[in-house]
Amino acid sequence: MAERAVCVVGTGLIGGSLLRAAEKAGREVWGTSASEPTAAAARADGFAVSTDLDAALRRAAATDALVVLAVPLPALAAVLRRIDAVAPAIRLTDAVSVKVAVADAVATHAPRARYVGGHPMAGTAESGWAAGSAGLFTGAAWVVAADDGLDLEVWADVAELAWACGAHVVPAAADEHDHAVAKISHLPHLLAAVLAAVGAGQAGDELPLALAASSFADGTRVAGTRPELVLAMCEGNRDALLAAVDDALGRLGVMRGSLASTGGLAATVQAGYAARQRWMASRSPAATRIQLNGPGVLAELRDLGRRGDVVVGWAP
Amino acid sequence: MAERAVCVVGTGLIGGSLLRAAEKAGREVWGTSASEPTAAAARADGFAVSTDLDAALRRAAATDALVVLAVPLPALAAVLRRIDAVAPAIRLTDAVSVKVAVADAVATHAPRARYVGGHPMAGTAESGWAAGSAGLFTGAAWVVAADDGLDLEVWADVAELAWACGAHVVPAAADEHDHAVAKISHLPHLLAAVLAAVGAGQAGDELPLALAASSFADGTRVAGTRPELVLAMCEGNRDALLAAVDDALGRLGVMRGSLASTGGLAATVQAGYAARQRWMASRSPAATRIQLNGPGVLAELRDLGRRGDVVVGWAP
């Protein structure tokens, strides 16, 4: 059996990288962009990318391809309505950075689609087709939603696409994914923005920025991401993000109290050091091979993800 | 005239790099460490480093060398008392990350020293002699204190050492320096610690750390710094750091309110983006050459630093 063809909707950094990676892995690939200059740039690089969304979706329906949505959250509803109109029962996944909101949008606008959410955990501060690369997902975690009731055949399609792109699969419930990314992706963007603003301070006092070195450079790097991308990502994950922000505010408040009263920062600094060490130690997760059968397989997969393990292929 | 010899007290990352850089620039250099294994490692690399502080200071007094203090703030008083005992009128600077507290300690424990504070803005998450390199200061800002009443001859010594190490000089009043580094160095360490702790969350829920990618990696990098170094740095700058923490808390509180009420984050994200762009644009400061004369020269130097300009050498 030839491996499943891939249709990518949205060819920015993530979609464009996915198109390149899947093509390099031998898949038949094509894509679509809302921007003619972007589509032209992709074509100039040898990829079949057009602005004709309906045609791309019809080709996916005709070849039973996997459609990957790689557009920002605010652009999703319009694409889903076209899917429902021209290719309603398509195999569908996405690469959007929140999962509950996308699942809700699919249920509303394209309820017949065979949808299994995905989220490759890769990115750079750059954006757009030109910033993409076939290697972007190498070694990255690729979340595949594992909520009860999902279509296991499409689950396998999404996992195989992740593996073809060099990533490992982390199964997770949509809401657990959203809480996790609020902590490790969305909160970092907001703290970076606040740190940059504190450092810049008042115009006319240029001394702080003149002294800023590597700790400021690293701590504010993602503040350089295009604001509309950060807003689409963070505002689409409001409830989980509020919980993460409150967690951070609580810890900062305790720290502020300690600094003001005793002058001590040991609890904060040691907890941060231990957490960073724990993360470093978790960088080599247990690589698991699975079979997609049994009635409780999705629950087992969610447990696997909570343990920090990853899936790298099928068990024989 | 031969260039001034340099005696470095403390040969960790900063002092060890300074020893290497000054030696590479042709200076006569020697150093001292409180740790015999560190001293032995430095000697194995060909540097005259011993644990005999008094002998190193006497040699500095005999040769009119510049002594550089590169020990953590809590270790400073003991060294200063030895200076007052064996080499009281030495030319003295330092590489400690706060300036008011060091100036106060010098005034208390070694009041006869000809002291001009310094702070090279360079570092890595690594520490110790082995982590040092002659190139650590290349292109870095090196603050030289410019408070009224300082010894201009030693000011020139410190500036020339900075230039010899490949850095550019940023003149600043000690208290303005401390407020600046609270914003761009100490606050980044505390935010990194809090972010790491939020991401690590509860043991048993490994999903967030399993998904953490570049935004978390960058945002928490300095949380991996040895806690005792972070504590020495941050706790020694309590008043300025409280102001920076309150600035950050105020901005985070406004953001939290907006997220909870309207769901909007545009003000925070756009301000962060603008601040990061402003910092990137300031990376090529105006390179100035100066003469150290006239009654108001230190005030002029402070203004120069507030404008974000840097000093790269003497005007003819």
TrEMBL record, chains A, B:
Domain Prephenate/arogenate dehydrogenase: 4-289
Listed InterPro entries: 6-PGluconate_DH-like_C_sf, NAD(P)-bd_dom_sf, PDH_C, PDH_N, Preph/Arog_dehydrog, Prephen_DH
Entry's EC annotation: 1.3.1.12
Pfam family membership, one: PDH_C
Keywords attached to this entry: Oxidoreductase
GO molecular function, one term: prephenate dehydrogenase (NAD+) activity
SUPFAM superfamilies linked: 6-phosphogluconate dehydrogenase C-terminal domain-like (SSF48179), NAD(P)-binding Rossmann-fold domains (SSF51735)
Stated family: Belongs to the prephenate/arogenate dehydrogenase family.
PANTHER family listed in its UniProt record: PREPHENATE DEHYDROGENASE (PTHR21363), PREPHENATE DEHYDROGENASE [NADP(+)] (PTHR21363:SF0)
Name of this chain's protein: Prephenate dehydrogenase
Organism: Pseudonocardia hispaniensis
Lineage of the organism: Bacteria, Bacillati, Actinomycetota, Actinomycetes, Pseudonocardiales
